[in-house]
Amino acid sequence: MLAEVQGQPEGVHFLRRVAERHYTSPMLLVGDSGIGKKFAVSQLVKEMFCEGTHTTVCECIQCLHLDAGSHPDFTYVTSPPDKEIKVEEIRSIIEASNEFPSMAPLKLFLVDGADNMTTAAANAFLKILEEPPRIARYFLLAEREFRVIPTIRSRCGFVKFQQLPESFILQKVLELESDRNKALVYARMGEGSVGRAIQFLGSGKIGLRDKMLSLITAGVRKDLPSIFSVAASVEKELPLGLRFLDHLVHDLLIVRHDPSRMINLDSLEIIQSTREKMRDDTWSRLSNGLRALTARYESHNINLLFHVQTLFVEAFGV
Amino acid sequence: MAAAKSPIGPNVPFFVSYGEEDYYLDQDMGLARTWGGRVATVIDASTESLDDNDLVKILETPNLEDLPRTVIVDEAQKVKESKGKNKPLRDYIEGKSSSDLRVVLVAIIRSAKLPELWSLAAEKGKLRERQKLKTYENNNEVIKDFIPKHAISLGLTLDTGVDKLLFQATGGNLYAVRNELRKLHLLVGNSGKVTTKHVALVTSSTSKAEPWDVASAAFAKNTREAMNSLSRVYKSMGEEASVPVVYGLMRELQKVIVAKHLLSADMSIKDIANVLSVPYIWCRDTLLINVRKHDDKTLAGHMSRLCKLDVDVKGSSRSKRTLVELAVLSIAS
Q: Rounded to two decimals, what is the model's pTM?
C-alpha cells in the first residue's frame, strides 16, 4: 500500500491521485535506481486492486496474485542487464491494452526502463500513450530523464523521485550488516539509493573502491606502470569505478574541512595522507577531468580504459 | 571428364568435400557437375533454406528420362535436420546401398568442421578435406606445390624467386595466384620464362593492411608506410576503419608510454618485456627502438589527442578520416 513508501512524499502524492482515479494519463517516474520507483508503483497497484483489508498482509485473491507475480491485469516489462527493451515487448503491451481486464477493474502496465528502449520500441509506444484506452494505466520508470525521447516525455505526467535519507538507508543496510561503520560506508556509497547500497554490500564492492584508491595513490607516486596495470585490471568494472573515483575525489576535497561527511570513512587515514602529498590544483584537475570524462562516457561509447589512464597522466603530470 | 581417371569419380553414392579453401571446394563441385552420362542438379542450401525432408524428396524424385543423377548440395552444412524422431536424410543415408549409383549425392561443406550427419555419408562414400593452406608457415604448400604445378599446366617456366614473390603479392590466396599466373601467361606467351620483373609488372600493390599496421608504422616514425597502410585499411574496410585504427593507435601508445617510463627508470629489457608481456626479441628490436624516437611530453600529448579523436570518430563528426590521418601524421612525423 502507498503508506509503505518511504521518503517520497511528492511521488506518493501523485500516485495517490492515480489511485483515486483523479489522474488517468500515463506517468513517467524518474530517479536513480533503488530509490523505490518500482516499489511505489507495485504498492499503488495493490491499493487499486485490493478487495480485502488494504494492508500489507492482505490475502485477497488480487493481492495473492500480485504477490505471486501472476496477476493477469498487471504487466511488468523490463530489459535484461545491458540490453534494450525491444519493439516486440511494446507490441505485446499494445495488444494487451485492447483487451478487457480479467479480474481487476483496470489493466496496469509498468515499463521499467523508458530510457532504455530501442527507437522502434519508443515510437511504437507513442501511439498508445497518446490515446490510452479508458481501462488502461501506464507507468514508465527511468533513471535518466534526458534519455527518454521528448515525444514520450510530453505525453506523460512527470514525477521526480528523490534520493532517500541516509538514516533510512543505514537502517536497511544494518538489517544485513552488523558492523555499523561498514554499514555507514555502504549507505553513503548508495548515494540516496537503498537498492544500490544493498547491491554494493551484497557484491562486496569495497574491493573495487580499494582498487580505485590504489589508482589514486599510484598517481601520487607518479607510478605510470601501476596506473596502467591497476586500471586495466578493473577494465570491465570501470563504469562503476568512475562512480567510486568520484566519491574518493569528494573525500579528498573535504577531508581537511569536514571528515565526518566523507563517504569512505573506513579509509580516513590513507585519504588524509594522500591528500597532503599533492597540492590543491592537482585535486582540482582530477576532479574537473573526472567530471568531463563522466560526461563523455555518458554521451559516447568511448574506450574508457584509455580515457581513465589519460586522466591520471594529465592530472598527476606523470 | 572421364570418371575412371578422376580420383573422385562417381563409384560411390556419396561424395563429401569439406573445409574452408573455396578454391578446391569449387573445383570439386565443378568436377561433380561434369561427370559423364549423368544429369547434375545443383542446390545452394544457404539461399534456399533447405531442410532434410526437402533434400530427400529431391533425391527420390526421378527425372523424366530416368537418367542417372548427381545432386550437388553447396553449403551442405546449412541443411536443417528435422527436430522430431523422424530423420529422413539420416534414414536415406543409412538405407542407401553402396552399389546404388542411380543418384549420387555430393555435399560441399564450407566449414572447417565436418558435421556429424555428413560424416555418416562420408563413411559410405568418399571424403575430401579441403582446409585452407597454412600460409604463415615457411616452405608452405602454395610455394612448394600449387604455384609450380599451375605454372607447368599453363606451359610457364618460373625463374628463381618468382614463386615467393607471387606468394607475397597474393597473400596465399589460391584464386589470386591462379589469376596472376594467367596474366603472366598472356604476358610471356606459351613456353615463356617468367622472371621477377614480369611479376612486378602484372601484380598490383593493393595488398590488405590491418589497423595495427598503421599504429606500428606511426610509432616507428615511418610516415610513408603509416599513411600507405592507412589508405589500404580505408580501402578494404571503408569509412568504418576509423574506430579500429584509433583503437590500434591507443593500444600501441599504451605500450610505448609504459616502455618509455620503464626505460627512463633504467629497467632491463628483459624486465620491460615481462612487465608488458611481450616477446623479448620484439621488445628489444622493435618496441624499444621506436620508444627512443619519442619523448615523454609528446607521448602525453598524444594521449590527450587520441582521447579527443576517440570521441570524434564515435560521434557525428563529418571528416573522421581526415582527423584520423592528421593524428597518424602527428604521431609519425
A: 0.64
